[in-house]
């Protein structure tokens, strides 16, 4: 009984962390079609922003949920103004440019923070479920991921700003004809995407040892999740994160963590073979 | 005037010789020590203090009049954590710079990339790093600890403190695989049982499911030869899940790159490790070493096991040169094979003539408030793993890295 509960929590946690890792990329790549290879570095910077803020005496939750997204969002804003905005619609060029950015951010972080592992400890204590101990922080990640999905849904479905953003991504010429400036809408959307990446990096920071190259560990999973998700932003994100989180955890518990990772990749290959346009091209069609 | 090919070649040869002469004259005056380390890039947390230790050792030798009355000059290359640069710089050190000895290499891959170049060019080579053991080559001397030297000491101690059921978590490459096998052997030799062994690629940073699995196997002790920044997450998540006070934890790698200073005191306290060096060693040699380091670089917090191994490696080489009375390769090797020893910051360290590895002191330590408290010291532990496969005295032409069968 206890063990099934513990495994359930671990599975939810795996899904939630995939949602977190991929949310920023879903906005930047899924919506805006910018292949952001610096996504992992945005997360890394979110982690460093949190650790630095905590070091300066800021409450850890404020640092994670407010400061890190803001700082990374602002960095994203600068990047968008200087680089990305010249490259909209040029898929391959954005890839090269953001790859260069990722190398630059790694270099900058190394210069500022040094090439050593840093970190903060988790702010929530573990607790016992029957004979087992659970990491209390897992629940925090699950809650944040759920809130994030709800907030994204509310934003894009319920607000005028969300409607305008979605409209602009589909037909920027029509949005311009209706009197909205696509330039500014792209800018704002990129800001949101970067802030989400920063948030993910911040929330995962207490669980890991952070080095300037940490971003590389997330980038592949984020792209796989977003691409397998397909055209719908939120439905795609949630459905592919659930599929991959579930598959990898089943194999992790049944065999080993390595096999779990392998299973995730094999699942992605099979999924994309069966549904080249992603899960939401077949299921949940027309959903947001 | 017609220039014949023979005259042209003769003239060119003379010119080249003339151009080389100043270099040759210089080489006669000074002894050149080649160093090849990653002082930037991914592994610079290891490489930078090693480079500092190398320069400290050379400065110290020069301050006391050099070697054989000659000054020691350093020729150092930064390989930028790029394996391809190792062979390139190794060629430059041996052909162009024609150094008398090379110290360096960090990862096993980097050592294997340059070992044959050193052997072919008959350049004496020192590898001053903790590694998986088994290299058998008369041209190389290894001054770091090998798995048995740590595991042989650590496992019985940790089992005595906790219990006989052991769960192993290891990094998934040759170091972790080989170390895991040794851990299993010593657990069984001490009447224990390995309930499970898990291997992790170097970029795995999520250990949630692993921690649940460990609770299912319910061991008395977890031994974790995990490597690198991502794997540090395990120790953090282990503490976050509240496991730290329930199951004992030991590691053969935690602390080599000063990881225990990254973990908070609550996360790190009580982890058992075994190394050749600890900053907290209370010996006059270590105090003197730290004082010298502080004078040269200010901050002593960066000193780690590999830096001290490098320092000791250079002192051992210098002792070999003094004994031999020359820097020529074969006399120095023969001198070192008499079992030359020095007393370094980590205690007495001697060359094992049979394997060219080091016989050294191993200290069992427990992490306490971001430091390592020495609990027990075992003097002069021999590199049993390499001794089992390598005998350079019977077979001096041997040239391979054995995979040690256990």
UniProtKB/TrEMBL annotation, chain A:
NAD among keywords: no
GO cellular component, one term: plasma membrane
Keyword entries, A-Z: Amino-acid transport, Cell membrane, Membrane, Transmembrane, Transmembrane helix, Transport
Membrane protein topology class: Multi-pass membrane protein
CDD domains to which the protein is assigned, alphabetical: TM_PBP1_LivH_like
GO MF: transmembrane transporter activity
Subcellular localization: Cell membrane
GO biological process terms, semicolon-separated: amino acid transport
Segments crossing the lipid bilayer: 12-35, 47-79, 91-114, 134-156, 185-211, 217-238, 250-272
Domain of life: Bacteria
Classification via InterPro entries: ABC_transp_permease, BCAA_transport_permease
Family to which this protein belongs: Belongs to the binding-protein-dependent transport system permease family. LivHM subfamily.
Family annotation (PANTHER family): ABC TRANSPORTER PERMEASE PROTEIN, BRANCHED-CHAIN AMINO ACID TRANSPORT SYSTEM PERMEASE PROTEIN LIVH
This protein's name: ABC-type transport system permease protein I
Automatic annotation (TrEMBL), chain B:
InterPro entries named in the record: Peripla_BP_I (IPR028082), TAT_signal (IPR006311)
Signal sequence coordinates: 1-27
Name of the protein: Putative ABC transporter substrate-binding protein
Organism: Pseudooceanicola batsensis (strain ATCC BAA-863 / DSM 15984 / KCTC 12145 / HTCC2597) (Oceanicola batsensis)
Pfam families in the record: Peripla_BP_5 (PF13433)
Recorded superkingdom: Bacteria
Signal keyword on record: yes
Transport recorded as keyword: no
Annotated PROSITE patterns: TAT (PS51318)
